[in-house]
Structures are given as C-alpha cells and as structure tokens.
Amino acid sequence: MKLTEAKQQFISSWGAFGTHWGINRTMAQIHALLLISPDPLTQDDIMEELNISRGNTNMNIRELINWGLVERVILPGERKEYFTAEKDIWKVVKQIVKERKKRELEPMMQLLDKLEDVEGDKKDKKVKTFIDTVSSIKRLGLQADKTLDVMIKAEENWFVSSLMKIFK
Amino acid sequence: MKLTEAKQQFISSWGAFGTHWGINRTMAQIHALLLISPDPLTQDDIMEELNISRGNTNMNIRELINWGLVERVILPGERKEYFTAEKDIWKVVKQIVKERKKRELEPMMQLLDKLEDVEGDKKDKKVKTFIDTVSSIKRLGLQADKTLDVMIKAEENWFVSSLMKIFK
DNA sequence: ATATACTTTCAATATTTTTTGAAAGTTCGA
DNA sequence: TCGAACTTTCAAAAAATATTGAAAGTATAT
Questions:
Q1: Using an 8 Å Cβ cutoff, are A55 and A61 in contact?
Q2: pTM of the prediction?
Q3: I want to staple B84 with a disulfide (CB 3.0 to 4.6 A). Which of A156, B40, B77, B118 is the partner?
C-alpha cells in the first residue's frame, strides 16, 4: 500500500473511531492528520488536506487545543500559526482520560451522591432497588476514579509492567 | 428528594451519559429504567414510562439484548414478553467492555496491521512518522487488548483488590 | 495610522441520526 | 384454520449535530 492511500485510510478510520467515543469526526480526522505529520501544519494545510471549510477547521483545532492534544506553534520569522499534535501516544491517552474523567465521571459521581439520599421507606422494593443500583454504580465509579488517577500519573513502562505482573 | 424525581434524574442523566459513549439516548434510558426496576417490565410499560413510540422502544430493546445487557423473560401464564436488566454493575461493565472490544478495538488493530506495511523509504521523514505513529498505537492497543481480556474474566473483588495492590 | 495577513464568529444550510406510527408479520389458543 | 394478542419493520418526519463561508475581528509591519 502506498503512503497516500494508507494516510487516507488512517485518517478516515480514526475519524470513524472517534464518533464511537463522543468525538466528532472532523476533530478526530484533524488529530489523525497531525499525528502522522512530521512537521507542524497551518490551518490552510489542514483545510486543503481534509477538504473542510475554514470555520470548521478553526473550531475543531480550538477544541483539540482545549483537550490538550494539539499545540499552537509559531515558527520563527513566520506570520502564520502552525499546529502540531503530541506524538507520544501514551501521553495522548492519559490526556484524554484526564479530560473525560473531569467532564463525565466527576459530574456523574456528584449526581449519584444526591440520588443516594432519596426519601422513602427502604423496605419498599422500588426504593431499595433504586438505592442499591445507585450505590453500586457509585462504588464502581469511585474505584474507577482512583485507578484512573494513578494511571494519569504513571509512566507507560511502569504502568504496563505493573499490569503484566498482575495479568501474567 | 422523592423517588419519582430521583428516577427521572437518574434516567435522564444516564441517557446523556450514554451519548458521550456512542450509545443512543433512548437505549441508555431504557437500560437505566430497567436497572432500577425491581421487576421485569413489558414493552408497553417502557413506552409509557419514557414516552417513546412502539418502534423506537422495540428497536432499542433489541439492541440492548444484542449487547447482552437486557434479557427477555416470559412470566408463567402470561402471553406478553417482559424485559429485565442485569443488576450486577460489574457484570454490566464487563459485558460492555467485551462488546466494545470486539466491535471497535479488534477492527482497528486489523487495520493498523495493514497500515504498518506501507511501502516506501523509511528514511523519508513522512514515511517514518507514519509508521512510528501506527506502530505505537498498535503497541498500546495490544496491551489494552490483553488487559481488557483479563478484566473481562475477573471477579470484581479480585480485580479491585489487585488494582489496589498496585495503586496503593 | 493603515494596509495586510491572518483568525474567529455565527446565522444559514446540510448532513446525520433518531423517532414515529401505521402496516406487515408472528405466535398461539380455541 | 381463524383471529386476537402481541412483535417487528421501515419509509417518512423530526430532531440533533456538524459544516459552511462571508463578514467581523485582531495583530503586526511599515
């Protein structure tokens, strides 16, 4: 397979992959493109390569910057902004985990705390099932939260080798 | 907070949560409703409780069954089908992990295998960056795959306590 | 100060995804 | 075999989401 074709495939399936994870197609595609680009690209490069409009490109680059996955780069002597993506995949994964934890897990835990305090007779089957469900989700969530915290701080080597020990 | 209100909140935020994870709102809401229902429900119960149409309800129940999260139950002496959700959250999580691994991770790994073989001079910076990126994603993917496999087989207690050992 | 090069915004539009509900299909008891 | 009770399908409609591009905004060099 030629590089051009391989690039296309990588970008397009990274985009499709993204949509399963609540990330929009274009954002994932821009990320993919930057991941495989040895040098920083301008917004125009990205627009041209992916055939998307100026506004769309700009918006999704900003979003990638918010997620901490892409950085603005100013090349010396150039007027334009360039963009580049973190290439260390382990760092990328940790960054995504960190953001999603903050954006999704933490608010969910707060809600569960409130819902656990529902009024009502705990001998009522409906009340009991509700509280039991909420509590057990909360328990697992807390565990996940702690585990992810450690993972975020870990080095890849350390993480992988620890897992290897447990998981044979 | 009253049970009725708590239920509403739980269902609606489970639905919103689902959309961040590539699961559609209704599917997640039906799942939430069944999770907190002590007894199996009929399709009509679900339709009424969530105010959704027959077709939509049917389609999403089927999808939940495909995912292995919901089961059909026939109550003795009744004509209608009832539905019930697995209540053990650890089992639910394992089931979801198993399905997503199969549906997403495995196809991605297959693609990466192909893409790693791209033709071209490895001294060319573009080719090199491409292969490096693909390879490192593959490496992490393989590790994730193994880890998830073990997780899928683990008991919650075993899993959690093992993690606790590593992660202090 | 202003022209130029570049970036951001956002209302309108297009696309994708979800939902509806009536019709077709199925199952089962009599 | 019939018909009532129930389930599934799917084309059309609605809703949600993403994209466009022209206009407004900003920063910089001279």
A1: no
A2: 0.91
A3: B40
Residue corresponding to tokens 């209100």: B5
Closest CA to B29 of B3, B7, B4, B44: B7
Alpha-carbon distance of B112 to B142, in angstroms, equals 11
Inter-chain residue contact A2 with B119, CB threshold 8 Å: yes
Question: How many angstroms separate the CA atoms of B71 and B59, rounded?
Answer: 14
> Contact B4/A115 with Cβ under 8 angstroms?
no
CA distance A106 to B51: 29
Q: Do A111 and B20 touch (CB under 8 A)?
A: no
Mutation to test the A interface, candidates B17, B87, B115, most A Cβ within 10 Å: B115
Alpha-carbon dihedral sign for residues B24, B26, B31, B36: positive
Residues 41-100 of chain B in contact with strand D via CB under 7 angstroms: 42-44, 54-55, 58-59, 61-62, 79-81
Q: What is the DSSP string of A47-89?
A: HHHHT--HHHHHHHHHHHHHTTSEEEEE-TT-SSEEEEE---H
User: B82 has which bridge partners?
Assistant: B42, B73
pLDDT per residue of chain B (168 residues) written in tens, 0 to 9 = 899 999 999 999 999 888 888 889 999 999 999 999 999 999 999 999 999 999 999 999 999 999 999 999 988 778 889 999 999 999 999 999 999 999 899 999 999 999 999 999 999 999 999 999 999 999 999 988 988 888 888 877 776 666 666 554
Residue at minimum CA to C1' distance from nucleotide C29: B79
